[in-house]
């Protein structure tokens, strides 16, 4: 019989690619992860990992096993969710992850509603980059999270997660003058930290009109971004939630580009009473913003 805990480690290795990253995410030591995966190979009776120096890659058999692991883990989550529906009162911990502007505009009113309607529920909020949310959901450090994609930065579906649409936003060009995007090819730019979705979106949106932006400043807080634009330090792309309040000297020019936010949770947990309550509260807060 294959051990579900070892299968979970193999699933995480498929996503995170290194044993060290799996160990860090799941609070193991690297040697413990290696030992568990070696034991899983013995249970499976076929090679699962190809080792080259310190690097490991999954064999075709391992990738097939990961697909089964996704289904097995989702069924276990669904069983736990159905058990939770038999309880008379909604209690326990609900861990929600969201990006900064959503914490302020959407999550805060949703938390008020959840606290009022379900006083026995312990709410825990983590502010994080949406790109890291899927990994946190898989690692079970979050139960519900807000994830994003931009027109120029599509996100591959994660087989471990279910998602549903929550919000679509306009992307604005923030500058001191109202000009089209292509007119700013020679200007300095302000963008998010490299490897974030916002940074990638800025680069690709500019490349789509024929130039690569010369990024002078990096800032992840859109209030800071707008302050830098107002100070004449460059231009930037800012989504709708991050554009308010806007300094009076900054002009916001709407672009055709959109940012889409989705609710995400582990497969099988969608009907867990706590997750269902969070989904309802976040949808209602988004509609009322």
From TrEMBL:
Instruction: Give all residue intervals belonging to the HTH lysR-type domain.
Output: 2-59
Family annotation (InterPro entries) = LysR_HTH_N, LysR_subst-bd
Which segments does the entry list as coiled coil? none
* The keyword Transcription regulation belongs to this UniProt entry's keyword annotation: yes
Do you know which Pfam families this protein is assigned to? HTH_1, LysR_substrate
Q: Please provide the record's keywords in A-Z order.
A: Activator, DNA-binding, Transcription, Transcription regulation
Q: What PROSITE patterns does this protein's entry cite?
A: HTH_LYSR
Q: Which family does it belong to?
A: Belongs to the LysR transcriptional regulatory family.
What's the protein called, per UniProt? LysR family transcriptional regulator
Q: Which organism is it from?
A: Nocardia iowensis
């Amino acid at each position: 019989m294959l051990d579900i805990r070892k299968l979970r480690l193999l699933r995480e290795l498929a996503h995170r690619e290194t044993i060290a990253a799996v160990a860090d995410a799941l609070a193991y030591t690297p040697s413990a992860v290696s030992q568990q995966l070696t034991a899983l190979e013995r249970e499976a009776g076929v090679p699962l990992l190809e080792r080259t120096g310190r690097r490991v890659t999954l064999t075709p058999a391992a990738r097939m096993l990961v697909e089964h692991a996704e289904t097995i883990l989702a069924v276990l989550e669904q069983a736990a969710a159905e058990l939770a529906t038999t309880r008379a009162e909604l209690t326990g911990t609900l861990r929600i992850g969201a990006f900064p502007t959503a914490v302020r505009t959407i999550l805060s009113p949703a938390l008020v509603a959840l606290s009022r309607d379900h006083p026995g529920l312990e709410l825990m909020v983590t502010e994080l980059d949406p790109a890291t949310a899927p990994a946190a959901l898989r690692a079970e450090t979050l139960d519900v999270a807000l994830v994003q994609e931009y027109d120029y930065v599509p996100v591959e579906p994660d087989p471990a997660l279910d998602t549903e649409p929550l919000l679509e936003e306009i992307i604005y060009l923030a500058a001191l003058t109202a000009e089209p995007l292509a007119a700013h090819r020679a200007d300095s730019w302000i963008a998010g930290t490299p490897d974030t979705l916002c940074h990638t979106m800025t680069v690709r949106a500019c490349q789509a009109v024929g130039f690569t932006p010369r990024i002078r400043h990096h800032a992840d807080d859109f209030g800071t971004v707008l302050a830098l634009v107002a100070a004449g330090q460059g231009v930037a792309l800012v989504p709708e939630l991050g554009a308010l309040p806007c300094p009076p000297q900054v002009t916001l020019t709407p672009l055709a580009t959109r940012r889409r936010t989705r609710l995400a949770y582990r497969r099988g947990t969608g009907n867990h009473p706590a997750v269902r309550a969070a989904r309802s509260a976040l949808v209602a807060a988004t509609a009322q913003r």
